[in-house]
Amino acid sequence: MKIAVAAKGRDLDSETCGRFGFCPYILVIDLETMEYEAIPTESLGKREEPAKVLASILGLGVEAIIVGFMSPRLLAPLTGKGFDVVTGVSGKVGEVVEAYRKKKLGSAIFEIPASRKKTRQEIRWALRTTGKEFLSIIPVLVSVILLVGLCETFINRKFLLSIFSGHPLKDSFMGALWGSILIGNPVNSYVIGDMLLKNGVSLYAVAAFLTTWVTVGLIQLPVEIETLGVRFAISRTLASIVVSILVAIITTVIIGAF
Amino acid sequence: MPLKKSRHWKKGTKIKWFFVFVTLLLYGLVYVKAPDRAYSSLRTSLRVLLQIVFPIFIAFVVKFFINLYLSPADMQKMLAKNRGIRGLVFSSFAGVLSMGPVFAWYPLLKDFREKGVPDFYLANFLTSRAVKPFLFPVMVYYFGWVFSIVLNMMILVSSPLVAVLTSAFSERN
């Protein structure tokens, strides 16, 4: 069986590498013979394209990958496909491989140290990841803000209050229902929730709306069913709606006490 | 093996841009029928947009530090290895700090499930994701300290209840 270990150096005495995509070498090791080949990561693909590097490694007939950290986006296509991916390891490559052979990986000696000084690369990575995450929410956030502008102009208070009457249970239910249907970054729900409050909609409705926006996703339900099973997904969704209504009512009662 | 972004990811991106398109289309229609009201809506939107810039900046800074000091690998470890009260606390913590859209986590959760992680912890993880520490400044800006703290605490406290109900009805039980 061949395994790949992300490493800082070219041999078994070198340290394993922390973040996949930033590792200078990949050591492809045959577990039966312990023969290995050190492949410079640059030769497999660009640093900005870790998926390409991963695809090249898998193309070498590797069945397991050992690395300090791999992003969920890279991990996702591998899970459930018979590949073994071990993350959260550190130490010398030889020791890690030996631990893997003995099925001992995960013991405390291989855990990543809790705190250490961050490298410039890691700071850059965090900055880039955060930037990408925020850039990705901008189109929908701006659209939601534009729609809020339209709602403020066209939808009058009377109409909103005909849907949200102020009854704790009814309002919480309606808020929970809308929050379950709509999806997107929670910031969008804050903008809409604020608009609803300003138009006199009760806090019961807004609290339920904010809670189900993030806990329930009726549009994402098919994906949850596909991956975690029908009963898990349906029971979690229904439980989340019911509990969100309770959360909204209790939160509003507590706020009322202040 | 193809290592492209998942179809759910692509579908999400398509829906996102379709939403943007529909919004612009609506504005176009309003502009044709009632230009004054379109300008009025735009002015309102601009006011809301300017108000949100500072809280979003604070959220960016908080998220940067979360990304820098906590990797998804740490969260995977928390979720995969702990049981009992420790498991409950760790799955909540992992959920609160987990990043990205939820469908990015589904394959991993499926894998954990197949490896025997009880449904309780998976459901608790998914519900705890509702608490977003990096967006807390934005929430406070809109709804105030008291509401934001109470609602987030209530979500966190109620997550195990959702988890109990889910695991009671899911197929493995």
Task: Describe the protein in words.
The complex is a heterodimer of chains A (258) and B (173). Chain A has 258 residues and is of the alpha/beta class. Chain A has ten helices and five strands; from the N terminus they run E-E-E-H-E-H-E-H-H-H-H-H-H-H-H. A five-stranded mixed β-sheet of chain A has the order 3-2-1-4-5, with helices on one face. In chain A, helix 6 runs parallel beside helix 8 (203-215) and helix 8 packs antiparallel against helix 10. Chain B is an all-alpha fold and 173 residues long. Chain B folds into two domains: 7-52; 70-169, no CATH class. The chains are: A alpha/beta (258), B mainly alpha (173).
Rg from Cα of chain B: 20 Å
**Rg of chain A to the nearest angstrom?**
25 Å
Question: In percent, how much strand structure appears in the residues of chain B?
Answer: under 5%
CATH topology of the largest domain in chain A: Nucleotidyltransferase, domain 5
Mean pLDDT of chain A: 80
Please list the strands of the largest sheet of chain A in the order they lie side by side. 3-2-1-4-5
Overall pLDDT confidence of chain B:
79
- CATH first level of the largest domain in chain A: which class? Alpha Beta
State which percent range the strand residues of chain A make up.
5-15%
Please trace the helix and strand order of chain A, writing H or E for each element.
Answer: EEEHEHEHHHHHHHH
What is the CA–CA distance across the termini of chain A? 64 Å
List unreliable stretches of 5+ residues of chain A: 107-115
- Number of contiguous helices of chain A: 10
- What CATH architecture of the largest domain in chain A do you see? 2-Layer Sandwich
